[in-house]
Amino acid sequence: TWMCKSDKIKAGAWDEITAMSREAVDVMLGLQLGHIGINCADEAEAAKTAETIGSLLSMAVKPGNSSIFVGKKEFEIMKKPGRGTHGHIAILTNNVDRAIYHLGQRGVKFDMDSKNVKDGKTVAIYFADEVAGFAIHLVQK
Fold first, then answer.
1. Quick check: is 119 in a domain?
2. 27, 71, 74, 76: most buried by Cβ count inside 10 Å?
3. What is the DSSP secondary-structure string of 9-47?
4. Is 52 found in the same domain as 100?
């Protein structure tokens, strides 16, 4: 009854109760956009892409080892093609393992071979399927 009033239970308002429960799970998971990764053929294309996005949006460009970040890491420009036909989308979450469970209950399939565990805690995992040519991965906040 902490999630809904007892009158909802007595009335059998299961659709409302389900919606409230789902909303509570969504709040607990804290899903939010982390960054967009864009695949480029090589380092030169990545540099050009990063400079273009940085210039258009007045964002800083910071080269890394395998990618170039734009802004406060809102964009990750890959120096060579990575996961996803076009790139990847990182979704931040409060708890990757809980997100795997709850999103799995909603039908999301995961590439378990991509699961990244550090100090016994899952910190990242990719969805099994692309969406509109983008790989999607969950990342620990």
1. yes
2. 76
3. HHHT-HHHHHHHHHHHHHHHHT-EEEEEEE--SSHHHHH
4. no
Residue 12 counted as domain residue: no
Question: At 101, which CATH number?
Answer: 3.10.180.10
Exposure on the CB side of residue 1, measured as CA atoms within 13 A: 5
Query: Alpha-carbon distance 11 to 141, whole Å?
Result: 39
Q: List phi, psi (to 5°) of 83.
A: -60, 150
Q: How confident is the model at residue 137 (pLDDT cuts 50, 70, 90)?
A: very high
Domain end position, chosen among 53, 80, 107: 80
Burial class (CB in 10 A: 0-12, 13-18, 19+), 23: exposed
Closest by alpha carbon to 80, among 44, 106, 32, 132? 44
Could you give the number of structural domains in the chain?
2
pTM here is 0.87
Domain span at 59: 40-80
Residue 1, pLDDT > 60, answer no
- Strand 75-78 and strand 32-38: the pairing is parallel
The answer to whether the CB of 55 falls within 8 A of the CB of 49 is no
